[in-house]
Amino acid sequence: MNVNIKIGFAEKESAELLVFYLYEDVKTVEGALAFFDKALNNAITELIKKKEFIAKLNKTITLPTYGKIPAKRIMLAGLGKKKDVTFDKVRQAAGTTASITRDMGIREVTGVIDSIEIPNPSSIEWYQAYVEGCLLALYKFQRYKNVPSEEQKEIKSLTLLLSKKESFKPANEAAKQGQIIADAVYFTRDLINTPAQDKTPAILADTAKKLAKEPGIQCKVLSKPELKKLGMGGILGVSQGSIEPPKFIILEYNARAKNQDTIVFVGKGLTFDSGGICLKQAKDMDQMKSDMSGGAAVLGAIKAISRMKLPQHIVGLIPCAENMPSGSAIKPGDIIKFRSGKTAEVANTDAEGRLILADALDYAEKYRPSAVIDLATLTGSCVVALGTAASGMLGNNEELKKRVKIAGEKTWERVWELPLWEEYQEQIKSDIADIKNIGGPHAGAITAACFLSKFTEKYPWVHLDIAGTSWCEKNNAYLQKGASGVGVRLLVQLVQNWSRFS
Ligand code: BES
Ligand code: ZN
Ligand code: ZN
């Protein structure tokens, strides 16, 4: 899709549809909208006065202009109360208006950006939120659908209409950044929405290799013989019940940046989690194709970071496996030995994420990283605790947790901290191995992180449990039912902020 920045006047714009953004608590029609109001015999003032349109967030109304002005229609879109406006409200309002425009069969979105009254018009962030909101809202996963071309509704171009010349530069930069971000989120969402049959560990590894065609990215894939040599019993154990062999994806961006900090992203890459011998119930088991959301977010983030040419050295580690029940599957009670030498009793084969992550987190140490962030759809317990509005955050370093929290607020991929106190470590003690892979019925998200913490002692580490945030049950302003792509925007923001705060 084309994203254009246009300096011009809404009054003269002959678009199919012009979108104006309004605040709920501003009752007077001002600026360019006043011109439209007059041309339409005060129709807009009347709508607001009679409360037929209240500019609450994500509410819209569309009016025909009957040839009285060059634009064919105008849409009024609510942003809520002016004092409460945030990047995410702009993202949401933009997304809502873009998808409504698309569903009307119109092929272009023209937003009158001055009407948002951006608090800081010279910074790119507000414009970027707008572009991101529009693009993310227009995502559709249609790989497996036959859609007749006459039913195909698609926005071909998005125009940010601005009246001041000075706004061109920041808005244009925002358009570029927003497109890179949205492209990466689309890539991640596509991978997650794809059925497990078409994204086996081998296919994911090939996808990562293709990504290495982007500037500055290298990819190495470790297969079963190499994993055996490295003693990665976690990845090997989880995958042994499946006919799909495991793969360990290693991506590096900017490997030659010797004076830069190294940040490692680790993503859970379970291409399907049936639960193994401790089989999950049938209801919603199909959603377990999304158990590689952490890995997909790592791939998407690295894609965006390379396109943005950020200066840091980034490593992405994605252990990939399929968790299946079979005659060769790992059994409850089996003991596995990790690359680090530690042993674990597999008390439940459905708690497999921590087993593959243990080897990857241990491997991360060899990069002497300044930070390691892992993302994993790790526990149902985290969904019980936090629902879908926040990812669970646990870690061993206050400064890194703070950075992740700041990036989460900015991108609205928010995180909420859970305690990783010593007391909880008690729950994963095993009678016959160093540790066991479940910690009983209480505090499951925490005990899962306790397990991971045994492999992350040598560097600053944050774990993000994205079980509740990676998948949407219903459509939202800029998130559709299905994969959210959570983590991509957060990781990119974290890296963008890295030197600013160090
Ligand atoms: N992949 C699941 C966690 C999950 C649940 C992700 C719901 C997304 C939505 C994970 O491997 C799992 O099965 N965890 C178990 C752990 C339990 C056996 C200790 C869980 O949370 O039930
Ligand atoms: Zn599981
Ligand atoms: Zn899982």
Secondary-structure-derived class: alpha/beta
The end-to-end distance, rounded to whole angstroms, is 36 Å
Helix content: 25-40%
Rg on CA atoms, Å: 25 Å
Report the uncertain regions: none
Query: Which ligands are bound?
Result: ligand BES, zinc ion
Largest sheet entry: 9 strands, mixed
Subunit organisation of the chains: single chain
Any guess at the CATH architecture of the largest domain?
A: 3-Layer(aba) Sandwich
Approximately what portion of the residues adopt beta-strand conformation?
15-25%
CATH topology of the largest domain: Aminopeptidase
Number of E-type strands: 20
Kindly state the mean pLDDT as a whole number?
97
- Please work out how many helical segments DSSP would assign: 15
CATH class of the largest domain equals: Alpha Beta
- How many structural domains are formed by the residues? 2
* CATH fourth-tier homologous superfamily of the largest domain: Zn peptidases
General form:
elongated
Question: How would you portray this structure in words?
Answer:
- By secondary structure, this protein is α/β, with parallel strands linked by helices.
- It folds into two domains: 2-163, Leucine Aminopeptidase, subunit E, domain 1 (3-Layer(aba) Sandwich); 184-496, Zn peptidases (Aminopeptidase, 3-Layer(aba) Sandwich).
- The chain is built from 15 helices and 20 strands.
- Strands 7, 8, 9, 10, 11, 14, 15, 16 and 18 form a nine-stranded mixed β-sheet that branches.
- A hairpin with a 5-residue loop joins strand 12 and strand 13.
- The longest helix is centred in the middle third of the chain and has 26 residues, at 168-193.
- The radius of gyration is 25 Å and the shape is elongated.
- The relative contact order is 0.11.
- The mean pLDDT is 97.
- The structure holds ligand BES and zinc ion (2 copies).
- Ligand BES is lined by residues 273, 291, 348, 350-353, 377-381, 383, 438, 444, 467.
- Residues 273, 275, 350, 352 line the site of one zinc ion.
